[in-house]
Amino acid sequence: MNKFIFIAMAILFAGAGCSEKVYIPEIVAHRGASWDAPENTIPAFMLAWEQDADAIEGDFFLTADGEIVCIHDRSTGRVAGKDLVVKESSLMELRQLDVGSWKGPEWEGTVIPTLSEVFEIVPRDKKIFVEIKDDTVILPRLYEVIDESGLEDHQIVIISFNSKVIKEFKSARPEHKAFWLSGFREDESGNINPDVETVLETLKYIGADGFSSNFRRIDQNYITRIIEAGYEYHVWTVNEPEDAARFREYGAMSITTDKPGEIREFLENQ
After folding, report:
1. In the CATH hierarchy, which top-level class contains the domain 3-59+126-269?
2. What is the rounded distance in angstroms from the CA atom of residue 205 to the CA atom of residue 268?
3. Mean model confidence pLDDT for the chain
């Protein structure tokens, strides 16, 4: 095990008062407990708390009338019977849609929540990972909603694939953690893109606190380089217990999953 990872884990163990306790990364419910409930909805987030998630993760866009709503896609077609483009629609228009029935009849009538509504259900000892799917146009309203939320700074983590969003957010709100997201591509020579040097250069330039990646095509050496450079590493979307165990050993500080209850139970019982 890398010495930096070992030291970090040892610190977490200190004071636990029980040698039998094991290190469990933060378990983040991907779009809520989305394996069991309709993604990015209040029922999914509430179920995540019932499944003992440490945090929830949701996707957010700005509407035509300046509200921030929780939905993954740029349009509503995949989760609703009517296809509306989020940025071209008002909150009222979006709230008329049923985004629960596609998951099952028991979720009929579930509506798209606002970021404010999602903030309201975050307990004091939990966190929310806010994935910005929009560009920087969303940030002025985001600052307002954060200020109105009453949540502590450490409870709100901003994540985005858009490096400009992270850079501008960290410049304005350095008190909040923000992570840059990326998946990986493999070129004809078998090289992984982005390579670790590109990631480290990007993290430094945008002032990010860490890097969060898909679990595919990344190995321990890559992750160790990020951690040794002083950044946090986080991983998504891990639904197989064996993969979760592997990334715990690699030093991931959080594991984002559609199955928070199952992943926590497996890691605790190892």
Report:
1. alpha beta
2. 37
3. 94
